[in-house]
Amino acid sequence: MREMIVTELTQAFQQMVRTVAHYLPRLVVMLVIAFVGWVIAYLLKLLARSILRLTNFSRLSENAGATRLLNRAALPSSTELVSRLVFWVAWVGFILLGISVLGIAGLQEYISRFFLFLPRLFVALIILFFGFLAASFFARAALLAAVNANFRSSRLLSISIRIIISIFALSMVLEVLGVAEETMLIAFGTAFGAVMLGLALAFGLGGKDLAREFLENKLATGKKEEKEDELSPL
Amino acid sequence: MPLKREPGWYKDAIIYQVHVRSFFDSNGDGIGDFQGLAQRLDYVQELGVNAIWLMPFFPSPLRDDGYDISDYTSVHPIYGTLEDFKAFLSSAHERGLRVIIEMVANHTSDQHAWFQESRSSQDNPKRDWYVWSDTDTKYRGTRIIFLDSEMSNWAWDPISKSYYWHRFFSHQPDLNYDNPAVREEMWNVMKFWLELGVDGFRLDAVPYLIEREGTNCENLPETHGVIKELRRKVDEHFPGTMLLAEANQWPADLRPYFGEGDEFHMAFHFPLMPRMFMGLRLEDRKPITEILQQTPDIPSNCQWCLFLRNHDELTLEMVTDMERDYMYDIYATDKAMRLNLGIRRRLAPLLDNDRRRIELMNGMLMSLPGTPIIYYGDEIGMGDNVHLGDRNGVRTPMQWSAGWNGGFSTADPEALYSPPILNPVYGYPAVNVLSQKRTEHSLLSWMKHIMAIRRSTPVFGSGSIEFLHPANHRVLAYVRQLGKEMILVVNNLSSAAQAVELDLKRYKGNILIEMFGKNIFPRIGDLPYLLTMGPYQFFWFRLRRI
Amino acid sequence: MAGETLLTDDFLRQLINVGEVDILVGLPTHNNAKTIDTVVRAIQAGILKCFPRERAAIINADGGSQDGTPELVMKASIDDVWNASKVYTLRTLHSISTQYGRSPEPGTALQTILAAADLLRAKACVVVSPHATAIEPDWLQRLARPVYRDNFDLVAPIYSRQRSEGVLMRGLLYPMTRAIYGYRIREPYASEFAISGRLATDFLSNGIWQEEWGRIGPELSLMVTAITGNYRVCQAFLGTKAPPGRGASDLVGAMRRTVGALFASLDSHYPQWSAITGSQPVPTLGTPAEIRSETARMSRKQLREMFVAGIAQLEPVFRSILSDSTLAELQKIAALPVPEFCYPAELWARTVFEFGAAYHKSVINRDHIVQALVPLYRGRTLSFLQETRDGSWEDLEKNVESLCCEFERLKPYLLQVWANGK
Fold it and tell me: Is residue A143 part of a domain?
């Protein structure tokens, strides 16, 4: 009996050693990958920061109104935020790569799904960013045009346009991410009319004069006779 | 011996205008004469002309270069005798050269026997041969032609104590054509010369023959009556004689001088000439085409006479004030060049001695509808002397060689009737017939060549003209046509190279054959015909359909 | 590169036919059939009266008219076939037209005219507005002669105006151009002017045609090029400026063409204007025309309303552009009723300079910066009208002069905000 137990123990111990011997190198590789990934991610973060600074990304984000939002949320600047995002995405990517080396079944699938998800995440972030940028731009454009056309509710118009375009951008983001697709579909359908207005305004601002004329003719409240007295400023 | 008188010979003629006094002196007295002229007829014949127009050679006090005549049926002794003239005439006819002489019909010299008689008393039979008046107020409003020297058209005669009418110099009293005797006598004079064998007359100053109160005394219907009568007689007794009118008038006023083919055969197109010079400097065909478009059609047996220069000043009577100012500013910067509403310069100095411009102007002269006249000396590019009085600057001796007196005369230079041109540019050492005869590409050689080309076809003389109006206004283009024969003429009036597109759709299918070099140019198709032309270049293209 | 495709084959062919000219008159048009006949006749009369011997041509650059404007221009041709006006001329006068695009664009129109002037080696190029119905034949002489005979490179116009006309010119463009570039040109934005062939050629090869403001505001760019380059500039009294056409009271459009172009010029010409202090007079030719009587009014109440609304509703925009102190002062002014309304010259100059600096830094979209200036300009207009309402013409000139001096005095402030930011 004692010999059986010793034999079993020895076998179990040997099994364990074999398992450890089987996985240890991979663990080492994983750690190495994680370490190298950290270094690379850090370098990418520095690179991203330099590129963003060079391209004046902070100005762009200020135009987008993102800076203001971040300030309010006591978050770091957009340049810093993006650089950190780059760092984390890169490092997580490397860690997952390392884990995949371990060869643990079942994990592979989740890891590959993560990597498949990454491009969509980037696209979504870009859409979000430019969506806010566009919202800010067109809102300001509409505000200026309305103010100069003596339209009473200029602020309201501007805010409406900002919201509509933001919603449009958000819904596109969520669709890209594949989050609550059906809900978004319904909500989008409801908001479709508002989006059309945003598009029309986008066109109008692309043909700025026409839109301005349209606003002046249609929205200016009743001071037309005095307008005719207004002499050429040149 | 007269040349056979062919009707319409003048339509294909090229006329050489020459003054016997200026051409060649045979007897060493410093004045050209008929014997000299006869000796030089070979040169005239080689030139390629087929008619000579002689300036006045009748006896005269020569106060207006022979246009003040004191005897209508003789030759001034300084030019020779009547026999000399006959010999010259015969010699010319032998060479196929017709001779046209001046008939100064409007006025005579105050030294003429007729005037001497007329002024002698109020009862003299010839009293009425001139236009007399007790006052100088008749025919008020009539313009004065020699503005630089005359203040009035009336002159006081101290002998007959009355005024006589003169449209020109005061020593040239006007004949009274209301008097049938005057008309009869002038016919006798013409008959005299026609019997000798002359081929035609240039009638000087014809618009002024008749005066009437309340008119401008020009171009009156009665004047035309006189002319018709003259023409009738000429046709009856000497058919084939050519009558050429000197009438400095607008085209519309010139038209009546052709009548219905029963007055003059030819008339000078005075208004065209200054416009050719204007168009050249403006680099714009507008003045030329407009005047020709305003030119009325003339009877088929009639012909315009075209010229670039002549013995008179380049007249600027028939232009607007703006045009006259322009011409003065451009062509007569020195006021000494201006005379009597005109410019007294020769062709070459007017064109800055620019060979290309001289060729272009002669090219237009030879290709526009009409009979061209070459003024003696212009074929070699003679210069002028504006410091000689009146119009004598353009009547200097012909330059035959670089030798003694330019080969004109063996007399002492001081004895010449006029000093020759001596400056280094136009003087006879530089510009003369002998030098140019030796050079293949001289102006003289070129003139002979172009005249030969002109003579090679009757289209230029007798054909119709249709102007093309290319959008490039610097190019003057027209098509001359006679029957099936067509010639396209394109002239670049600009000092710079030009590209021009011609609408030749009507002539589609024709090949262009350049008439100087006889090379073929592309066929006319549907597209506008593109020509590129050098400065002052011109083309004559024969259109051929093969 | 754009110049190579600027001229159509057909237009080029027409230019070949015109050939070298001495005087070229350029007419940019777009649907001007109502006024163009008067303008073209005056130009033709001017050429025939003042330059009868010179080679002249009228070049129409049309932006896609649908009402037959080009055909009306071409009727001014006089040649041996066509002479609609039956006038006598010494020379052929070509009047040709080209369509440069399907919609009007001032930059392309001017570029086309300059290209024609360059190719035809025009000694003088006169540009005339199709709205200039008050034009007289003599204008051509007053504009072209200094260039053609006296070797000037640019002749700017001076019009006689009503008190309330041209306030943008008097109140902003003239003082600012004067302070910045050091030349007292009364009308830096000109719709009628003359330039020499030399300046036309140089300006044509300038790179501004690719830029937005070069296409929208070429006239002002041309003026700036002339006064900052080695060119002789003068101004000439013309006469009355024509009543505005449709859309002329479009203030935002006018601001874009003028103020936008002026702000944009500051970037490229910084080395020159930053070194200039004070200003010098420009040779002025001719005699001033009589002052026009006032025939129109402007609604002061509306001006104030638009100013106040602008201050209130554009506050977030102004925060990006103006300094806090300037904005605060403007907000105080917005509270004043019409009779007490006053937008001082010093504050206006400061406002404009801060806008210029903001434009330079592109704190927001540049076109938005220009648009944002509009309500403030209206406020300044109101103040100007109040200040000069009862005064004489001399008083008005004094007012403008003191405004100009204020701009000049504050130029160092512009340099400061330009470099440092708010």
Answer: yes
pLDDT band at B466 (very low <50, low <70, confident <90, very high): very high
Q: Where are the domains of chain B?
A: 113-165, 463-544
Sign of CA dihedral A21, A25, A28, A33: negative
SS3 C190: coil
The reported pLDDT for the residue numbered A224 is: 45
Q: How far apart are CA A156 and CA A74, in angstroms?
A: 28
**Chain C partners within 8 Å of A137 (Cβ):** 365
pTM for the full model? 0.82
Alpha-carbon radius of gyration of chain B: 23
Please give the average per-residue pLDDT across C118-136, as a whole number: 93
**Are A234 and C168 within 8 A, CB to CB?**
yes
Q: Which of residues 231-290 of B touch C (CB under 8 A)?
A: 278, 282-287, 289-290
Q: Which residue has the higher pLDDT, B240 or A108?
A: B240
Under the banding of pLDDT at 50, 70 and 90, the label for residue B248 is: confident
Q: CB of A87 within 8 A of CB of A95?
A: no
Out of A69, A104, A139, pick the residue that ends a domain.
A104
Note the pLDDT tens digit of each residue in B35-67.
Answer: 999 999 999 999 999 999 999 999 999 898 889
Q: Which of B350, B366, B393 is nearest to B540 (CA)?
A: B366
Per-residue pLDDT tens for B371-403?
Answer: 999 999 999 999 999 888 778 899 999 999 999
Tokens of C13: 């062919």
Q: Residue C118: is its pLDDT beyond 90?
A: yes
The residues near C240 (Cβ < 8 Å, ≥ 6 apart) are: C134, C159, C160, C161, C289, C292
Q: Is C291 near chain A, with CB under 8 Å?
A: no
Which among B189, B205, B102, B188 has a CA at the least distance from the CA of B145? B205
CB C40 within 8 A of CB C133: no
Could you give all domains of chain C from N- to C-terminal order, each with its CATH number?
Answer: 2-285 (3.90.550.10), 300-420 (no CATH)
pLDDT tens, position by position, B299-330: 999 999 999 998 888 888 888 899 999 999 99
Give me the interface pTM, i.e. the ipTM: 0.82
Q: With a cut of 80, say whether residue A197 has pLDDT above it.
A: no
- The CA distance from C226 to C220, in Å, is 10
Superfamily of chain region B463-544: Golgi alpha-mannosidase II (2.60.40.1180)
* Burial tier of A84 (Cβ tally within 10 Å: 0-12, 13-18, 19+): middle
Supply the mean pLDDT for chain B. Answer: 94
Which of B276, B294, B293, B272 lies closest to B285, judged by CA?
Answer: B276
Do C261 and C379 touch, CB atoms closer than 8 A?
Answer: no
Residues A93 and A67 in one domain: yes
Strand spans (E) along chain A: none
Looking at the structure, do residues A215 and A146 belong to the same domain, yes or no? yes
Chain B adjacent subunits, 3+ CB pairs under 8 A: C
Which tokens go with C175? 């003082």
pLDDT at C197 over 80: yes
Contact flag B286-C81 (C-beta cutoff 8 Å): no
Active-site annotation of B, residues: 204, 246
Of C252, C305, C313, the CB nearest to A143: C313
Domain B113-165 in CATH 1.10.150.130: no
